[in-house]
Write a structure and sequence with these properties.
Blueprint (H helix, E strand, L loop, with lengths): L5 E5 L5 H7 L10 H12 L4 E7 L2 E12 L6 E9 L7 H15 L4 E5 L6 H9 L3 E3 L2 E5 L1
Parallel strand pairs: 4-5
Antiparallel strand pairs: 1-2, 2-3, 3-4, 5-7, 6-7
Length: 144
């Protein structure tokens, strides 16, 4: 990966330290055993789409999409959780988001939902709006 290209791969249980490194410094705390167990269960659960973006051998972003059955329509709803590094020179977030949308479409989802970002995450909200998400109640929704 010396050429700096982005490689998106399935996430692994051992990617937890990389996730911690991507979070803002204020969230850097020694993880509890419960948090580590939760991470390992979630990362190994094949009902989720958990993918990692690597560049030059370093993890630069992660995306998790959870799928839940929809009551109003036959099929599934997709819920997005995205974490990218603050330094995003290659638009890694956009690549992960496009990848997540494609995976959700393959699973038959019609929309991808995101919990409304905190007010302190205004940049994330702008990024999602630019990617086609719009506010629907307390969530952001993107038609697939």
């Amino acid at each position: 990966m010396a050429d700096g290209r982005i490689k998106i791969r399935r996430g692994k249980r051992t990617d937890f330290p990389a996730l911690l490194a991507l979070l803002p410094a204020a969230q850097h705390k020694q993880p509890t055993k419960t948090q580590v167990r939760h991470w390992r269960r979630m990362a190994s659960d094949l009902r989720h789409d958990f993918y990692v973006a690597e560049q030059a051998g370093a993890v630069r972003g992660m995306v998790l999409v959870c799928y839940i059955p929809a009551l109003k329509q036959h099929g599934w709803q997709a819920l997005l959780d995205l974490v990218v590094s603050a330094v995003d020179p290659c638009h890694i977030g956009q690549q992960l988001l496009a990848f997540a949308k494609a995976r959700a479409r393959k699973r038959g989802c019609r929309t991808l939902l995101v919990c409304t970002p905190d007010q302190g995450e205004q940049e994330t909200g702008l990024f999602l709006a630019h990617a086609g998400f719009s506010r629907v109640g307390d969530v952001l929704s993107c038609e697939l």
